[in-house]
Amino acid sequence: MSNISVLIMAFLSVVIVNNFVFTKFLGTCPYLGCSGRIDTAFGMGLAVTFVTTLSGILTWLVDHYILVPNKLEITRYICYIIVIAGAVQLVEMYVKKFFPPLYKSFGIFLPLISTNCVILGICLFINIWGINNLPEVAVLSAGAGIGFTVAICIMAAIRETLKLADVPPALKDAPITLITAGLLTLGFMGFTGMIK
Amino acid sequence: MLSKIKFFMQQSWLLLLASFLFGLMIAVADTAWKPKVEENKTGKVKNMMKGLINANSFEVAAKDVNIPSDKGFIKTDIYKAVDEQGNVLGYEYITSGSGFGDKIELIIAVDAKCEKYLGYQVLSSNETPGFGDKIKGDYFSKQFVGAPAAEFTLVKVGKAEDIDNQIVAISGATITSTAMVNIFNKSIVSVKETLAQKGLIK
Amino acid sequence: MVQNLTVSPSPHINKHHSTQSIMLNVIIALMPSLAAAVFFFRMKAVYVTATCVITCLISEWLCNWYRKKPNSLGDLSAVITGLILAFSVPPALPIFAAIIGSAFAIIVGKMVFGGLGANIFNPAMIGRAFLTASFGGLMTMWTVPATIDPNMPVMTAANTTVMTQATPLAWSKEAIKSKNVKDETKKVNASVANGMLKNLLTGSRGGCIGETCSIALIIGGLYLILTGIITWHIPAAVLISTFVFSSIPYFINSNYYASPVFHLLSGGLLIGAFFIATDPVTSPLTIKGRWIFGIGVGGLTILIRTLGAYPEGMMYSILLMNSVTPLIEKFCKIVPAGGIPNA
Amino acid sequence: MIFENTFIFAQIDLLKLWQDAWPAAVTMLVLGFGFAVILLVASEKLKVVQDERIEKVAAALPGANCGACGCAGCADYAKMVVMDPTLLGKCAPGGSKTMALIAGILNLQISEDVPKRPIVHCNASKDDKTYLAKYDGIPSCTAANAIANTQACKFGCLGFGDCKAACKFSSIKIVNGLATIDYNTCTGCGACMKACPRGLIEMVPFKQSRIMTVACRSQESGKDTKAFCKVGCIGCKLCTKQTDAFEVNNNLAKLDYNKYSPNEQFETAMKKCPTGIIVFRGKE
Amino acid sequence: MADGINTSPNYFNALTAGLWKENPTFRLLIGMCPPLAVTTAVKPALTMGLCVIFVLVCSNMVISLMRNLLKPHLRIIMFCLSIAAFVTVADLYLKAFAPDMSEILGAYVPLIIVNCIIIFRAEACASKSNVLVSILDGIGSGSGFTCALIILAGIRELLASGKFADIQVMPKGFVPWAAMQMPVGAFVTLGLLIGFAAIITAPKKD
Amino acid sequence: MNFPGKLTFKGGVHPNDYKTLSSQCAIKTIPVPKQLSIMLSQHIGAICKPLVNKKDTVTTGQLIANADAFVSAGIHSPVNGTVKDIALCSHPVLGRAQAIIIESSDDNQPKQPVPNTFDVSFNPALYSADKIFDAVRNAGIVGMGGAGFPTSVKIKANPKAPITDIIINACECEPFITCDYRLMLEWTYQILAGASLISKSLGCNNIYIGIENNKPDAIDIFNKAIKTTSFASNIKIAPVKTKYPQGGERQLIKSILNKEVPTGGIPPMVGVLVSNVATCAAIAEAVVLNTPLTHRVVTVSGNGIKNPGNFYAPIGMAVGELIETAGGLTHDAVKIILGGPMMGFAIADLATPLTKTSGAITVLAQKDIVKRNQTPCIRCGRCIASCPVNINPTKIAHGVKHNQLDIAQQYYMSACIECGCCTYICPADIDLTGYIKTGKILVARQKKLMPK
Ligand SMILES: Cc1cc2nc3c(=O)[nH]c(=O)nc-3n(C[C@H](O)[C@H](O)[C@H](O)COP(=O)(O)O)c2cc1C
Ligand SMILES: Cc1cc2nc3c(=O)[nH]c(=O)nc-3n(C[C@H](O)[C@H](O)[C@H](O)COP(=O)(O)O)c2cc1C
Ligand SMILES: Cc1cc2nc3c(=O)[nH]c(=O)nc-3n(C[C@H](O)[C@H](O)[C@H](O)COP(=O)(O)O)c2cc1C
Ligand SMILES: Cc1cc2nc3c(=O)[nH]c(=O)nc-3n(C[C@H](O)[C@H](O)[C@H](O)CO)c2cc1C
Ligand code: SF4
Ligand code: SF4
Ligand code: SF4
Ligand code: SF4
Ligand code: FES
Q: Is A29 in the pocket of ligand 9 (CB under 6 A)?
């Protein structure tokens, strides 16, 4: 079925070719802040993936079934952010209460990212790209999160080795992370044009 | 029950009030600026069209014309550029094709007889800066101004100053250049046909 | 002190193989290619190579000077960076671009990470990637080798023929891109069979300064392996995986896709496999990691060559695999001979 | 250019404006209502009890959730700091102000009548010591201590600064091969004590701002000590004759710091010491 | 009197801290997405900066006004609500009066909602200080942010096209470095600038 | 002959062995030194307490220090004389440690080796396991291959973990050292007798002697001896590959038996006992003649020594004196090492006494040592390839260097046998082994296992 292949393409596109961190510059703050250790990075990545998927779908539903039919597009941003913040807060409370181990492994990241660029970014881009079916929305929003996870895990491993390197003091931590990310984008340019 | 409602209101009145007021605020802004926003949207295309043919007004000459492109057909309108005296100065239409990064959307202008191109404007594109996006620059686009409205071929080496059916590729951006040439080649035939059908050209 | 005695932890002797001697051997191994480059591209090759090497040395010296660190030019790694960078740019590259690329390679690609041994990415490839991204036009201007173009004046850089296309890979790419033009690939594949193969081997073709002469590269690579400077794993992994991955599309449709042999001999594959992917600093330490790395490089190269927008993917695949090298090492931890201790 | 027509709505009929705008406002109201209900219910039903200091600390933090601390957001950092106060000061955006606040919440100033400060029990600079050979190994005290005869004295300061590296407050300098503590900045954290492989650093109660000490740990016989070091304790027992706060064991004099008070006897003991190894340590 | 002495430097501080000492981009490293995304040229960067100042000032003001009325569980949602409202207004304004900028900035204008600076200032300052301090703080931080954007955009535009704010600066023979317009240019330049800022502010060591 | 193992192991290095400097020098007895300093800590386990006081007179073979602990070995006086002092003295490992200083009287005769006591006719059946254990314990024998683990503990049969194979370690893989080689040539039957006594004590009949294949004459002489004797007929000679550290017990077990000693474990865990040839000789002498361990063969060699040789020296003799016996230092001698150049301990105090584990004094000249000029690691992987226990020395060393002991431990720092191969091979001249040793000390201190 070509439908499936469309979904696969969409997924690869958003994970690798149009990675949100590298091409859309979204989620830079946690990308800098949480890439120091690989387990933190992975936890963060999981949490982001969870939230992008959740909010991508929710906002699309809200947009598609409430805002557009009622010509309320103007409240789009407000609705998006409130839906995201509310949903994340709810999930966090819920997980914290009922699944403490799960909360430990990735729940703690949730409040941190409810106001993170990737999340709102994927919702907005889904809208801009004019995606109009739920499966694709789901794949794209999960893909954005997974793309973030891939990017942050690569960076975390790099930074763990850089800990043992003699980086100039002024460039330690954030600056060298930014530079490395920049050089990484040079590598990711190789994927250009692979998927339209 | 009542006490619950009271408690709720105590906790949440601010949120309710704020939602209402902010809702009002953006709605007012929207209402006030909407005409301008709309105007900008249509204005952009109009301005670009004007940039190609300095006409007084643009009328729809043919609606929903099917133009072949990479993925089947696209529907577009052909506009007639008319000056103050009512003379037809040329025709313009919007078309697209896939480039290096993403879709390239162009406005193409031909003269009144549909014999020569009057140029093009890039409505939207996502080509690499410094490479594909040189299609927005003069060096590449000048080649099309005055070029015969017939099949183009792409060459890698040649003189860009010569106005003919040979388009010199942007070095380092062959794919984009090919895409541009394809967009022109694919659309012009059906545009000519349509205009001829309507009796607007011979 | 009776006698000028020294104390230190054991061991008290060591082998006379220094960083410097290793680097020197790599430079020696690159010499056949340099000779070939000078033969094919005459003084152009000399100018570009000299500029790159000198700029690399100056940049490294400046960084050390700024950080008040001991001078590290003596380890010769900057010379290799300069050579490799020069070898992977077109002969007609203007000098200013060569300077920018080399400075970027050393400063941003190497010194900001802390100098030799600390960089994550191969500095020369960083320099090349930056040049490709910045000056795409200049980086795809191919010079006709002196052997093909008899007009090429000997020993001068001026007035030589520059053409904008015509590397073998570019033909093959065009064939894939415009699916209906079968002739182009046929031409490629046919040419591999007759004549072209010889040109690919001897280097009488358009391309980057050091990549054209396959024979010289193979000689250099074998020298490195036989003298024990590099282990054979990465070159083998790259070559084998390139061969395997490129035969898949070829066997599916040999009308559109180039043959594995063509893939092995064209573009930067050989220099990449022997000299660049093997850069010890940016490739995994362990044997298992090296296999994964090499297979990754080969696979990505073919992926980019056949599906991507660029004709060649060696540089990008090396950079990408460089970036996952820390991850590979993290997950290919070697196990002590006595097994992992409990608790 | 951009600013002309900005206030275009001043000319617009207010009634029409309201007619156009109310749906949005009302939607927002409904939305706000919905979330108010849900979150209120949730916050009541899903409350989790935790150490109240965590909330206090969290409130004191900037709330940027920037991750600079290496934790997953401010709330997580708050929790970590409460559990492990050594993480104090990781919050870069908060800076020292926040650090002080948190320290206040966590009661970090451990009340102590007599503050303990480290003393390096060696007073030999490079020039005072005998060397039998050149040490050509890793410049670390721990490494050098594992090698015989790095310097003749097995007990004295090696001067490679393991203690200096351990001090987070940059209070230790190596002056001519001898670790020297700056008591003005030392916080008494004791990290240096743990770092010294020769156990030269001891945390000592400082009743006064400076205190007397026998700055030597050499248990060598007097003869060997003399051969190894110009300023070592030779166990001559002259000091013990002045006050019983000094005691000589294994060829080494030791001062019982609890018995020390600045007076005549101690001064004399100090003067009597033939190698001058009884010295003051502390703020000048 | 005593009050005045205590608080007047406070106002000054609120205004100037954000410019350098607590510059969000170079010192605090928050709100890093826009400096990377919209700095291909000076003009969009400036536009972005102005938008952020506007939103920051407004949201700081509103949040400061209602800081004593906030209930814990509604805190975040109230912040989001007010910020989003002002961002919507700013977005509409750009669409109406600076359509070309609006097109270039695209999704990055609504993304101001989740820009870390805004929430950070709301939490760190507005929800604790009076209205005037909050407004000054908004102006200060916003200007610091804008300056950072312009510096970054200036460098990138200059090298990528030889122009500054669309005015040709570089001599004729200059070959533009297209890479500066690509993500590499953004990341590397920002990284080096932050390092540079760290060198400038580093306490002199003996 | 077939062996379970491939007679080699993964990793290792091939340093120039310089054995010819002293391999042709027969073992020489030397005059009794005037003064001996006998260290109280010469072995792994409880440190001995002196049993004599200052000014006491002692006789040859008298027990002068002992400890009650099971893992410990008594110390005997090599000479007749008086106790001059019990004081701190330079120790090759501990720096300074307590020693009993004995002034020898004039009536001393140098002790002569006893290889002639042993020949084809030796009969281990005469000695019961208990007798062997007692004799070994009373003689204060400790492993003479370097580690110094009390041998009595090793040879006591443990029914819960029976020993199935005994390996006599005759590799002598360190450069310069030839004492074991000379022993094999000159004391062949004594060694075989010791080996058979060990096998008797443990009730185990699989005995291998692992000899590096660069010593064909030693292999020959053993093969011939085995053929002629009945008591040693079950002994198999394993000509293992010449490669450092073939003599490491884990490597030897891998080479001969193809068994891996678990990381952090010891050979008995895989049912193997490894013992050095000198230890075997000492066991034989102790069991048959009841003489305690007071002398050992020491190779004095190196390019910084005038007349290299192998000497039968009393324990407690000052290094400097023995060097003088060997002609003294050359003018360009720069490093005196107790042991071989790969694992030995550099010392600077020539008064440092020999201990039971000091098999060699190696003196390196200027041209042998390479000035360490540490440059950054180029991640070439040579250290990993050369590491006989297959760990990642560079990661560990860098972890230690940057004070990240957790990283070092994640990469199995504790598995390192401190053989020095990695430092030897590293082109960047990084003292990897030094960092690893330091890291181990730091970890031990962290765990408070080590007194400060
Ligand atoms: C950073 C970069 C960006 C590129 N962008 C484009 C582009 O936008 N359009 C295009 O057609 N080719 C682009 N290319 C080049 C193509 O990948 C390929 O090299 C080109 O088709 C070869 O063209 P030539 O034959 O004119 O040299 C880009 C290359 C690089 C390195
Ligand atoms: C080591 C090495 C790596 C290279 N990597 C790339 C690459 O990743 N992308 C690329 O376009 N060219 C790369 N090149 C250059 C190509 O091999 C060469 O230019 C090729 O023939 C492509 O030409 P075209 O871009 O005109 O098709 C590399 C060259 C070398 C020596
Ligand atoms: C790296 C290394 C090399 C060693 N080389 C030898 C050697 O050449 N000969 C030897 O007898 N013991 C050598 N040993 C010591 C053995 O591992 C083992 O401790 C010894 O053979 C046990 O016998 P013993 O208890 O009789 O000393 C070496 C140890 C290590 C760690
Ligand atoms: C086998 C080998 C290959 C190397 N290849 C490269 C290379 O491709 N590019 C480069 O910049 N340096 C290369 N170097 C030099 C050096 O390792 C490199 O500059 C480091 O990455 C700098 O830290 C090589 C060195 C060796 C030993
Ligand atoms: S480590 Fe602690 S106790 Fe030691 S000097 Fe520094 S601050 Fe003082
Ligand atoms: S006091 Fe201890 S740790 Fe500090 S320099 Fe001296 S020996 Fe080293
Ligand atoms: S041998 Fe030396 S240079 Fe090579 S990886 Fe090991 S530590 Fe690094
Ligand atoms: S010293 Fe340790 S790490 Fe180095 S090779 Fe030997 S066992 Fe391996
Ligand atoms: S601005 Fe902070 S994550 Fe984007």
A: yes
F319 backbone φψ class: left, alpha, beta (φ>0; ψ -120 to 50): alpha
Residue E177 structure tokens: 């470095």
Mark yes or no for CB contact D29/B23 under 8 Å: yes
Please tell me the residue having the least CA distance from ligand 8 atom 8: F387
CA-nearest of F222, F205, F258 to F2 is F258
Q: Which ligand is nearest to the CA of D170?
A: 5
Question: To the nearest whole number, what is the mean pLDDT of chain E?
Answer: 85
Residue F428: band (very low, low, confident or very high) from pLDDT cuts 50, 70, 90: very high
Cα separation, C63 vs C68, in Å, equals 8
Q: How far apart are CA F285 and CA F293, in angstroms?
A: 9
- F333 φ, ψ to 5°? -70, 130
Asked if F167 contacts F252 with a C-beta cutoff of 8 angstroms, the reply is yes
| Residues β-bridged to residue D213 | D279
Distances (CA, A) of A147 to A18, A81, A139, A193, E3: 9, 22, 12, 17, 53
Give me ligand 7 centre to Cα F431, in Å: 10
Q: Residue type for B174, please?
A: T
**pTM listed for this prediction:** 0.86
Instruction: Take residue F217 and report the two structure tokens written for it.
Output: 């004459």
CB neighbour list of residue A107: distance below 8 Å, 6 or more residues apart = A47, A92, A95, A96, A99
Question: Which of the ligands is closest to the CA of residue D204?
Answer: 5
Burial B100-117 (b: 16+ CB within 10 A, else e): bbebbbbbbbbbbebebb
CB-based contact (8 Å) between D38 and chain E?
A: no
CA distances to B121, C301, C312, D188, F209 from C318, in Å: 39, 8, 12, 51, 50
Residue contact A75–B23, C-beta within 8 A: yes
Strand, helix or coil at F8?
A: coil
Confidence tier at D172 by pLDDT (50, 70, 90): very high
**How close E29 gets to chain D, by Cα (Å)?**
8
Angle at A93 between CA A90 and CA A94, to 5 degrees: 85
- Residue F305 contacts C, CB cutoff 8 Å: no
In three-state secondary structure terms, C163 is strand
> What is the ipTM score, two decimals?
0.84
SS3 state at E142: helix
Distances (CA, A) of C155 to A42, C78, F287: 57, 27, 87
Check pLDDT > 90 for residue E170: no
Q: What are the DSSP calls for B55-104, one per residue?
A: -SEEEEEEEEEEEE-SSSEEEEEEEEEE-TT--EEEEEEEEEEE-SSSEE
DSSP state of D86: G
Bigger pLDDT: C11 vs E128: C11
Structure tokens at F134: 């007692």
